[in-house]
Each structure stands twice: as C-alpha cells, then as structure tokens.
Amino acid sequence: MKKAVIDIGTNSVKLIIGESLQEDIIKIILDVNVITKLGEGMREDGRLSEAAMARTAQAVVKFADFARSQGAEEIVCVGTMALRTAENAGDFIETVRAAGGPEVRVLSGEEEAALSSRAVLNSIDGALRGEVLIFDTGGGSTEFVRAAGGEIERAFSVPVGAVTLTDEKFKSSPSDPRLVCSVIAALTRKFSEAGVSPGAAMMIGAGGNVTAIASVAAGLDRYDPNVIHGSALTREEIMRQTALYAKCTDEERREIKGLSPKRADIILGGACIILAAMEAAGAKEIVVSDRSLRHELLRKELSTDTKI
C-alpha cells in the first residue's frame, strides 16, 4: 500500500510518498519540496497574505493530485508554525479544502518536535546511545528535543525561524556584520532561556537551512540526501558561511554552489539560528539529518513497526 504525507511549513511545502515492503522496511518513492513562503510578511500583522495562501494552496493541491496519480491510497496533510499562529489560518485551510485538496491538520509545537526528533533518532548512527540534543529549524520556528538512550526527555518549540527572522532583521542585503553578531547573541540568550543547555554527547541538526549549509560545505551541484544525511558541520564552517552570506547580496548568494537560489534570501537568518543553537548548547559541531517529521508521519501511517 502506498501512502503520502504533505508537510506545509512556513517556507516550503514538502511531499513524501512511500510504501511498505517485506521485512518491515519502507521504500521512499518520492521526496520533494517547493518553496512557497507561506509565512512571508506575516510578522507585520499576524496574517497570511492572499498571495502566499494562493500559491501555497496551489502547491498542496498539486502535490495531492500527483500523489493520487502515483497510487497513494491515503494522504496525510499537516501544517506547522505559520498555521499555528496566523490569525487567518482557517481561511487557508478552507481554501485548500475548496480547491479539492486534503484536510489540513495543524500540529502543535510539541507534536512537531516529537515527530522530527523520532525521525532523526531512528536514522542517525549513534543517536540511540547516550544523551542527544536535536534541533530542527524551519521558516517560523525551531524545535528542540533532548533524548537519552533513544527516549525523548523533553521537547519544546521556540517561535523563531529563518523566514520570520529575515522579515524582522535581514530585509535587505548585504548585512552589517555588527547586526549579524548582535542577532546571534540575542538568539543564544533566547534559546538558553527556553531550555537549551550544554551537556549532550551529540548535537544533531535538521531542516532545510541545516541541509542547505551542508550542501554548500560539500560543494554539491545537485542536492543529494545520501551525501548530506549523517555528515558533520563544524562551528568554523558555519561561521565561514554566515560571514559569506552577510557580505553578499541576494543575487550573489544565488550563485553560490550548493545553495538553492530560492533559499538565498533566508539563508543568513537560518545560519544565525544554527550558530546560536550551537552556542547555547556548547557544541563545536553538529551531525546533519535529512530526515524530518514527514518521514516519521509516513512511517506511522504505513506501519507501527517499520524503518526507513
């Protein structure tokens, strides 16, 4: 049986299609995303713009239609930070429904963190041993999970992401290095106050900003999850890229090898969040995960006892 999951984020919409095989293994048939910036400009009045809702709803409906054409018998569709907080989130959900799209369920921050972390714990070597700190930074929020021996001890969400941070601090490019430093310092305090602390034996980063920076570090002409998943990023490499993004215009960032042109305008915000998370955790490097909540939702839908 084939099933699909659509994940509606603040910055992008993701589709994953999979099926159960013998021996309790899930085969991923397709895993794609499109950047729609649903949360763009939301910080100004707390509402989703008509343009952002229209293009995101169109992407959701197209993904659902494509999943059905590929034989998906069930489609699970979830929304995260933008739909948790927007005053008119209900209007977007109704727009998707009226266009023939799937029913959208909005995840709580705790649900999002737990799903993302379980996908990571099940796929990164060594993550089931010792104490691990996982963070998944998206467009509108950053989820943190502390786990020990494969068991989740605490999961929490901090309402800051690459899209919202860009709207607030980095609307123009290039950026003043002093501003970048002050933003990182403020975020470090914010994460520490939320409960991020040193002590974990391993820190794992997930989400599009983390994998984008890993792709640039690897110099990839085309994104390859098999290269990125399980790779490591040092604090020095992330600092190097942060300085690079700060001094570049958006147009110059679009020419950087390994970076998707559609992520060029928010990558500086994403890099600042990653550095601040590492600083709050006292981490010198992170292990990169390409797995996220959509992988865990797919696993849950297909079986309660399978692995991807």
Automatic annotation (TrEMBL):
InterPro entries: ATPase_NBD, GppA/Ppx_hydrolase, Ppx_GppA_N. Transmembrane segments: none annotated. Signal peptide: none annotated. It comes from the Bacteria. Residues 25-302 form the Ppx/GppA phosphatase N-terminal domain. It holds the Pfam family Ppx-GppA. This is Ppx/GppA phosphatase N-terminal domain-containing protein.
